[in-house]
Amino acid sequence: MTITRAACVGGGVIGAGWVARLALNGIDVSIFDPDPEAKRKVGEVMKGARRAYRRMATNGLPREGRITYAKSIAEAVEGADLIQESVPERLDLKHKVLAEIDAHAQRDAIIGSSTSGIKPTDMQSAMKRPQRLVVAHPFNPVYLLPLVEIVGGEKTKKKHVERARELYASIGMKPVVIRKEIEAFVGDRLLEAMWREALWLIKDGICTVEELDDIMRYSFGLRWAQMGMFQVYRIAGGEAGMRHFMAQFGPCLSWPWTKLMDVPEFNDELVDLIATQSDAQSGQWSIRELEKIRDDNLVAMMEALARGDGGKGWGAGELHKDYVKQLGKAAKGSKAARKRKAESPANTLEPKSGKG
Amino acid sequence: MTITRAACVGGGVIGAGWVARLALNGIDVSIFDPDPEAKRKVGEVMKGARRAYRRMATNGLPREGRITYAKSIAEAVEGADLIQESVPERLDLKHKVLAEIDAHAQRDAIIGSSTSGIKPTDMQSAMKRPQRLVVAHPFNPVYLLPLVEIVGGEKTKKKHVERARELYASIGMKPVVIRKEIEAFVGDRLLEAMWREALWLIKDGICTVEELDDIMRYSFGLRWAQMGMFQVYRIAGGEAGMRHFMAQFGPCLSWPWTKLMDVPEFNDELVDLIATQSDAQSGQWSIRELEKIRDDNLVAMMEALARGDGGKGWGAGELHKDYVKQLGKAAKGSKAARKRKAESPANTLEPKSGKG
């Protein structure tokens, strides 16, 4: 199952990342974003994404999908079989936007919300056909990181969850369907736990943001990027495996290692402390430069993992390998289509994906 | 400043990892571990470490240091300028072992404890010369992951912290000196936060251990391996940077995303659930096979990062590049020394590092 035409409502960092992934897969995308700067901002993200895809798509890239800017949600969603909502995290705004998408979308279009934490059931109340709403929560940069958490609400039909899974997989992603609906799902529950703990460590002066980042990236960050937490701990248990590990480290849960579990007060002083330390750590690079470094690293790491497990590919690398192949196949497809078109006076392309 | 001779007290997963890093840097290591299986277990780790180093040391490796098994702590620490303690995490045991190390170590030897969380001040009470004790907390696999958290206690002298920093850096590590002594330091505070949250997610049936691992390794794991958390969020703030990000996501701290902050009950049911899911996820590989896959991935990812930032190297990759060069230089050094020795009837080598 593939996406013929997509709509993105909201073109911020996440929305533009969706636009980039879709367009670079050869899919036409229509955007609605009331921000007068939207076109420029999406353009910047596209520039970065094109650069990353040219680097990683060693077998070629399909002809880029056409990106258009709609004047209304109704115009944007017309004819789209996937509609991705990426507006700010306010339930009232989500309700308003989803109601409008719902009113104008094709009957069987999948509506995916990029929310990091709002439960789909809480968003469905505003919709007349809520059965096709799923949360499809991606990770920045959306055009490179493959994960998408798929979460259905009380009114979501199973077949739409399954269809969403297939649609997102068709653009090189790794959909993980979350079994029970909770706030913040799995990804942001883990991220929040880490963030909360990190804020304490900075606030209490135990380390700076640069030291904390170094502690992550020179150690367990490298473990988690390839195996995740449980598989790593299985190994740490040594020859006795997981049960041994659990027996050995379970008791720490009641040690003072976990005593600071309340939420640190989030005030101007803390914001200042972190922003100042962050400037000291990264001020020598612009955000655009950091994005390039990040994207190059992500591609290089996925390529490295693509050679893992004796050449079979491992984790994100295994998927990356398939994705590069898929883009290459699509490249040949669009080349052949362009050739056919050039040879024939009549446009024989599917009208929706034809770019005149 | 370099290490001439090292002693490792405790030869489990962590202790053996230290032995491997030291020996592969050409340093003689004496081990004390009362476990009758110690020699076999250290041998297994050495086998894995040699394999990884052969792969990564593209400029050659120094002649391996000699590994000897001592009958007592006194015998092990004799003549060592670095003594690494890696015994189980029980304060009474640490006291007993450190007192014995202290009594027999060279006056100016650095004593590093591998503890993940016990405060150095709490360990120093058993020592007569506590000023040279630091926590030097590494991450598994010690022979590949570069991070070591250096923590001084109330009685640790600054110059010994500085010397420890230099000694660990000399064997390719990234020492980060922790500014204030707290239980679990920085690394294990972060790991515990993540672990606690993960246990909730599994216990509540939100996802399986395999799904949770996938959620990490197809998304933020790849981000953290190269940049850590704060630098990543700086980028997420977009053109407005860190302050914008903080303003946008700060309020989530008081949302229900963080409501489950107490400690899940750690009972047999939870251990069973996790061990069973872990078998389903990884049962097809032995621990040794998983270790090989992990080590290959770690080396490949560090090599990938060594090409980062336009070839300058980035994060763990920048260090990796230097480490490979350093091993290569040492390789030439030991080759030259072997040649000199072969040409001369008298052994002109420093007796401590001569291996007959």
Automatic annotation (TrEMBL), chains A, B:
The protein, known as: L-carnitine dehydrogenase
Region (Disordered), start-end ranges: 330-356
Sequence ranges assigned to domain 3-hydroxyacyl-CoA dehydrogenase C-terminal in this UniProt record: 185-250
Domain of life from the UniProt record: Bacteria
Listed GO MF terms: carnitine 3-dehydrogenase activity; NAD+ binding
This enzyme's EC code(s): 1.1.1.108
Assigned protein family: Belongs to the 3-hydroxyacyl-CoA dehydrogenase family. L-carnitine dehydrogenase subfamily.
Transmembrane segments: none
Quaternary structure and interacting proteins, as annotated: Homodimer.
Keywords: Cytoplasm, NAD, Oxidoreductase
One Pfam short name: 3HCDH_N
GO biological process, one term: fatty acid metabolic process
Subcellular location: Cytoplasm
SUPFAM superfamilies tied to this protein: 6-phosphogluconate dehydrogenase C-terminal domain-like, NAD(P)-binding Rossmann-fold domains
Location of the 3-hydroxyacyl-CoA dehydrogenase NAD binding domain: 6-181
Biochemical pathway: Amine and polyamine metabolism; carnitine metabolism
